[in-house]
Structures are given as structure tokens and as C-alpha cells.
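Ops channel
N.P.: pipeline sanity check, posting one input/output pair.
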């Protein structure tokens, strides 16, 4: 056992050295890093709230619910984070993620082709409407059978792009699956325009669709205060929360600025200045940053890292670029212009 642990520790040390010391290995990992690819996923307070909502409807086997949020609030990233967490807490529940697309004309062909594409079906674009519909049904059933589950969670992003026809197609599909002993639980994420879709359905007396998919709209919020802001920055310093490469023990902060890290710098130390920069941008328009979308925060952090990475050339603490520059580069101030 000790020998195995020693081998594992040796591999971790070798991975750290290859990753943190300049060279071809570091360059390769750098290009694949989630922060460089703008695919950062942080378990923020809002994400935890969204997870709790999803878990609640799963436990109670509700037909579904919906969450709305402004653009760039991090809905898509939140869906990924929720899926990751569910894989740990509810590994026996199969799930799929669909992105609602807008089309010039609503049709079963478009609807089921889109679903098959999102569910990674290899024959998404062939066959009649009936064949494509059956493929969606079979795909969901096979996922449920594989997990030996009578539930299937369908997470839908950009739900405002669907209208009465699409939600009717979805209702009929979930009814057929119910007859096959698979209960589909839907969680719809969307722009606030989703509430207009809901109102149109109410006006047309389509409460069958409203009660099934859009009964109790919730709000997916942004970062609300400095404490939550600080949590995001701390997470970048924590290899247990945000590690890359996997099993390296290297946090995002250490990877991007290894020499500053060695000198004692932490991204956490930047949180107050960064928050002040967001406050400054908001105050220019007489506003306060009490609902900052995660995409704006992640964008500012990414800008900050990229601006300072070149200066991380010695063991001395580099002089960091002003946060107002990093925040301004995200375009955050434009959200206050109407």
C-alpha cells in the first residue's frame, strides 16, 4: 500500500513540475485549461440554489419547474455545475441537456431533430418525423433502463425559444414515456422572455402546459454581495474546488501565476479591489452591483489573469493590472445602458 501511495505521489510531483515549469508540456496544458477556454465552472451561491431547486423537484417527482435569469448570468454554466453535482449526489438518476432553438416555423421535425442532436444521437437528421420522435423516446428509455431508474431529468436551456407547439410536443413525449413507466422531470432555464411565453400560454388557456412545465417560475440570480464575490475568488485558489490538470493538486490561480503564487500571492487578495471596480462601474449609472452575472465576474477574472500572466516571470510579487481595466473589458457597464 505504501509503495502504491509513493508511486501516486511521485506521479503527482512529476505532473506538477511538467505543468508549472515553462516548456512544451505547460504550453499544451495552458491551451487546454478551462480558464483559457472560458469554460470555468464555479459552485457559487446561485448555482447551489439552482441545484437545491432541481434536487427538490427530483425528490418530489414534480413534473418540472422553470428558472429565469438575465443574459450572461451564467445559466448555461450553472446547468453544467448542477449536472456535475447530481452525478455525485444522485448517480442513479439519468439526465439530458437540451438547448431550445428558435426556428422560422415550428415543426415536429425541427423539434425532435434538435433533441436528438442534443442527446448526441448519431442519426439525428435522418428518417421521418415519426422515426425521429421514436428515437428520442427510445434514447430516453435506454438511459433510464441503463440506470435502472423510473425517472429521467431533462434540463432545457434557452427555454424562451420554445412556444406553444414545442411545449405541446414535449408534453406528448413525456406522456408516452410515462406510459412506459419513465417519469420525465423537466427544468427549464431561460431569459426573462420565458415569462412572456408563459403568459401567452395562460392567455390561450393552455394550463396543461403551464402546470406541466412553467407553473412556478423561479429566479436564477447573480452574485449579490461582496461575501459571495469573495467565495468565487477563494475557489480559484482552492485545488479542491478548481483543479487543473486533474489530480495535479494545482489550483487555477497557481497554474496561471505560479511564481506569484510561490511568493504568497492569492487571487483572494484581489477580491476587494475587484468588487470596488464593479461598484465603480455600476455607480457611474447610479446603480449598485447587487445582481452581477457570473459571466461578468468570470470574464473579469480571466482578463485579469491574462493581463498579468506575462509579468509572472520571477519569484517576486508582480504588480497587478488595475481591476477597473479588467472589468471594463468585459462590457459589464453596457448592461446599465437602456
Amino acid at each position: 500500500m505504501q509503495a502504491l501511495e509513493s508511486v501516486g505521489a511521485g506521479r503527482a510531483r512529476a505532473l506538477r513540475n511538467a505543468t508549472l515549469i515553462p516548456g512544451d508540456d505547460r504550453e499544451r496544458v495552458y491551451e487546454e485549461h478551462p480558464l483559457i477556454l472560458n469554460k470555468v465552472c464555479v459552485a457559487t451561491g446561485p448555482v447551489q440554489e439552482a441545484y437545491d431547486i432541481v434536487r427538490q423537484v427530483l425528490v418530489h417527482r414534480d413534473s418540472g419547474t422553470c428558472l429565469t435569469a438575465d443574459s450572461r448570468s451564467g445559466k448555461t454554466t450553472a446547468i453544467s455545475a448542477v449536472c456535475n453535482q447530481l452525478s455525485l449526489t444522485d448517480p442513479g438518476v439519468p439526465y439530458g441537456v437540451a438547448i431550445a432553438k428558435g426556428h422560422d416555423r415550428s415543426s415536429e421535425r425541427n423539434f425532435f431533430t434538435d433533441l436528438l442532436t442534443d442527446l448526441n444521437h448519431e442519426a439525428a437528421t435522418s428518417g421521418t418525423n415519426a422515426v425521429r420522435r421514436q428515437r428520442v423516446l427510445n434514447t430516453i428509455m435506454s438511459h433510464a433502463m441503463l440506470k435502472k431508474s423510473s425517472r429521467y431529468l431533462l434540463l432545457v436551456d434557452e427555454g424562451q425559444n420554445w412556444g406553444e407547439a414545442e411545449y405541446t410536443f414535449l408534453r406528448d413525449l413525456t406522456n408516452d414515456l410515462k406510459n412506459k413507466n419513465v417519469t420525465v422531470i423537466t427544468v427549464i432555464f431561460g431569459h426573462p422572455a420565458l415569462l412572456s411565453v408563459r403568459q401567452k400560454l395562460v392567455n390561450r388557456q393552455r394550463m396543461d402546459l403551464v402546470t406541466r412545465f412553467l407553473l412556478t417560475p423561479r429566479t436564477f440570480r447573480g452574485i449579490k454581495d461582496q461575501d459571495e464575490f469573495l467565495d468565487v475568488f477563494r475557489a480559484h485558489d482552492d485545488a479542491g474546488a478548481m483543479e487543473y490538470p486533474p489530480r495535479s493538486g494545482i489550483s487555477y490561480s497557481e497554474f496561471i501565476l505560479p511564481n506569484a503564487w510561490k511568493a504568497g500571492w492569492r487571487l483572494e487578495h484581489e477580491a476587494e479591489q475587484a468588487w470596488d471596480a464593479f461598484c465603480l462601474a455600476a455607480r457611474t449609472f447610479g446603480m449598485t452591483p447587487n445582481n452581477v452575472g457570473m459571466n461578468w465576474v468570470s470574464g473579469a477574472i480571466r482578463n485579469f489573469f491574462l493581463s498579468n500572466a506575462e509579468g509572472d516571470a520571477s519569484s517576486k510579487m508582480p504588480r497587478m493590472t488595475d481591476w477597473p481595466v479588467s472589468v471594463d473589458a468585459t462590457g459589464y457597464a453596457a448592461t446599465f445602458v437602456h
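N.P.: looks fine end to end. Strands lie at 64-68, 95-99, 151-157, 183-190, 217-219.
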